[in-house]
Amino acid sequence: MTLRPLRCRRDREVSGRVGGVLRGQGVCTAAVGHLPSTIMRLSRGLLAAASGLLLAVTGCSSAGDEPAASAPSSTSSAPAEAIAQDIRWTPCDEQIDPLIAGTPGSERDLAFECGSTEVPISYEEPDGATLPLFLVRARLAGQTDRIGSLLVNPGGPGGSGADAAIGSALTLPEDVLRRFDLIGFDPRGVGLSTPVECVPAELKDRLVAAEPRPTTEEQLDETFALAQEVADGCAEEYGDALGTFNTVDTARDMDLLRQSLGDEQLTYLGYSYGTTLGSTYAELFPENVRALVLDAAVDPDTDPVTDAETSAASFEAGFDAFAANCTKLVSGCPLGDDPRRFVQDLLAQAAQAPIPSAREGETRQATPGVVLTAVQAALYDTGAWPQLAQGLAAAQQGDSQQLFSLADSYYGRLQDGTWSNLIDANLAVNCADSDPDEQVDEQRVRELAADWGQRYPLFGAGSATGLHTCSVWEAEHTPLPERDAAGAAPILVVGNTGDPVTPLTGAQDLAEELESGVLLTWEGQGHTAYPKTDCVTQAVGSYLVDLVVPQDGLTCPA
């Protein structure tokens, strides 16, 4: 089984201390984003601090404890009987402040609260069993002329919105924070909101270490067997409840949260997969949209095969941009004058003899899967390019420590060998969202792996085999709706010309499909744009605060 790239936001300003990583995540990125090691430790601290609050939710039950009715395939708004519940807030500065100390932005006068509420497991039974959602609220001191709440999602699926609120509080412009409470919630199945947990740590280690470019019959057989093992384990763990974790119901949850927060309309900032969640919300509740910023948009129009091939081509282009940058360094590129050849040779080296790590206590050795995961992780953000170059060079000399650091943060592995539930949630939501009529049969996947392995040498075969994952997934499907969001207020869609994860065509297509969509383009590299450049920051800020919509098609320079 080849893990698909995460669609979520990475923010190197925050990563390292509270920064993060992953697809569809977010957690992938993260001023926002799934914030790996430090924030995952933080989440556990928050869980301990808020355990009484979580357990006190009246009538809540885990989807794993009580099988839910399958999620409805209808895309109509949530039934009137689904009543928003109060959010129970408690201060959690004590847990958060020590972990963000010394991080850029931590000097801001911020107050953090943790909260919990409950939502129906099934919107077909709005008075039935519920599951708890975990939230974080950040407020900047001196807030004036408050507009309401700004809800953030980092992507994934699987990225923690609670983590995203913490990271965003450190990085978003203060002009925006002075007008909004910053709210992040862990979507159903993610983080501290009834997390999906059905892929054991040992199996996750095997998934990351597995052959990343399977093309031979034996390699493909092993890849398909891993996918089946994961699917069987999750089906056995959750049964009929597995389909509960889907984007349509998460969008319905968001509307209940909007009501619980006391906002007449939703103001939202979503990255990568978060653009899918935000546009789904706009389709279901167009009249409730105040302002939506959809940054690094996932293309709503492409079929799975086209999407997978586009992903492979985009990562290849992202690698070429990294390589060109490296070879132009005044100090010289650690990978020589042909970084692509260097990586190809390193993959061959790791296949022949996996590369050990110099980190004390580390027993793992870097296989080609670890090497290529590290490469893929660093392509999300140009700020990670120096670490990638140095890490690849060190691995050639026998030390894979920096490559493990990149790979582990990408998929949510902590130094103690435990994992977040990012992989579990990413698989569960992606497969619940998938359309059974668009599944790709095994023979076609084998043909694509052979073809794309030639045309996209680093990422083609892995992208092809990712198409197999959901075909063996045993869960109810709730396919995403078509999204024109007729009647919604203007929606701002942001895309990058050099985005290796969600190419610019995705933003262009989403802006065109949304009746009120407005496109903003950044001529930059990396995944996501806001708030990386003054032009984008000013345009997005004016839209969020004053509802001043930029000219459709505005382009911001790199």
Can you give a write-up of this model?
This protein has 558 residues and is of the alpha/beta class. The chain has 18 helices and 14 strands. The strands form 3 sheets. Strands 2-3-4-7-5-8-9-12-13-14 form a 10-stranded mixed β-sheet, sandwiched between helices. Helix 8 links the parallel strand 8 and strand 9. The longest helix has 24 residues. It starts with 6 loop residues before the first strand and ends with a strand. 58% of the residues are buried. About 12% of the residues have low confidence.
Q: Segments where pLDDT lies below 50 for 5+ residues?
A: 10-76
Secondary structure: number of strands: 14
Strand adjacency order, main sheet: 2-3-4-7-5-8-9-12-13-14
Mean pLDDT: 87
**β content, as a range?**
5-15%
**What is the helical fraction, as a range of percent?**
40-55%
Distance between the termini: 37 Å
Over the alpha carbons, how many angstroms does the gyration radius reach?
Answer: 22 Å
Alpha-beta classification = alpha/beta
- The 3D shape can be described as globular
**So how many helices?**
18
Largest sheet: 10 strands, mixed
